[in-house]
């Protein structure tokens, strides 16, 4: 993989190579902004078409996230989604949510529980993946299960539209289809996922962990703990 890293420097979170596009955005969690880097990553997963009319999706990486369910696939998803919620300080809560921050206090965990949206979206995507394999991942047929899936689909839709990746992807001729088919295995400019994941892990249960509090809040909305 070819990598070109753009650091979040002392002159501010801006990349000249990206046409003065901000590496950090106004809604990014402030303590995490110093970890933001960009790198060039070539995507994988475009179908490979065979002359006999069949095709398959290759997985050249060291982790497998798709395919017939297995403990290895579950472990790969767990590695990128576990520990996605963590405690934040009162100052961080006020800075992020303003006067509404008191609504997000959780007496059960002794603090303000929050998470980075990217990891919430990955969790949603994994739940949708599991829905393709109901025999391997038995899921409730309760109405709320379907509501959760609809939430996940619409949240991922909004996230993709929000981030607006403008990378150009080509189409190429595929003989047995009789038409062009998209080739999505092209370089993209990405935030360095590993650095962001490491920071979240350290905040969840590591050197950056915010200690629990014995304080009790009685704000409107108390008891509504909607982590998922």
Question: What does this entry look like structurally?
Answer:
The chain has 228 residues and is of the alpha+beta class. It has five helices and twelve strands. It has helices at 71-81, 90-97, 117-131, 143-163, 193-205, and strands at residues 6-7, 14-15, 21-22, 37-42, 48-49, 55-56, 85-88, 105-106, 111-115, 171-174, 179-182, 187-191. The strands form five sheets. Strands 1-4-12 form a three-stranded antiparallel β-sheet. Strand 5 (48-49) and strand 6 (55-56) form a beta hairpin. Helix 3 packs across helix 4 (143-163). The protein is globular, with a radius of gyration of 21 Å. The model is unreliable at 1-16 and 220-225 (pLDDT under 50).
| Strand line-up of the largest beta sheet | 1-4-12
SSE pattern:
EEEEEEHEHEEHHEEEH
Instruction: Specify the overall morphology.
Output: globular
* Rg, nearest Å: 21 Å
- In round numbers, the mean pLDDT is 85
Distance between the termini: 33 Å
The major pleated sheet works out as: 3 strands, antiparallel
- Strands, count: 12
Beta-strand percentage range: 15-25%
Unreliable segments (pLDDT under 50, ≥5 consecutive)?
1-16, 220-225
Give me the secondary-structure category.
alpha+beta
Q: Given the structure, what is the number of helices?
A: 5
Summarize the amount of helix as a percent range.
25-40%
């Amino acid at each position: 993989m070819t990598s070109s890293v753009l650091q979040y420097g002392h002159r501010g979170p801006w990349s000249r190579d990206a046409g003065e596009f901000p590496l950090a955005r106004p809604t990014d969690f402030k303590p995490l902004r110093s970890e933001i880097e960009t790198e060039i990553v070539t995507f994988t997963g475009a179908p490979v078409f065979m002359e006999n009319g069949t095709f398959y999706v290759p997985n050249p990486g060291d982790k497998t996230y798709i395919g017939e369910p297995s403990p290895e696939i579950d472990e790969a998803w767990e590695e990128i989604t576990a520990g996605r919620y963590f405690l934040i300080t009162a100052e961080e809560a006020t800075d992020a949510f303003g006067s509404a921050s008191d609504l997000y206090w959780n007496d059960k965990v002794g603090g303000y529980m929050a998470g980075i949206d990217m990891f919430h979206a990955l969790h949603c995507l994994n739940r949708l993946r599991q829905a393709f394999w109901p025999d391997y991942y038995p899921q409730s047929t309760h109405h709320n299960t379907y509501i959760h899936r609809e939430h996940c689909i619409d949240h991922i839709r909004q996230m993709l539209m929000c981030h607006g990746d403008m990378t150009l992807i080509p189409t190429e001729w595929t003989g047995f289809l009789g038409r062009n088919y998209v080739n999505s295995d092209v370089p993209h400019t990405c935030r360095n996922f590993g650095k962001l994941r490491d920071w979240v892990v350290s905040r969840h249960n590591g050197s950056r962990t915010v200690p629990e509090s014995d304080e009790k809040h009685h704000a409107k909305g108390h008891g509504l703990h909607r982590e998922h």
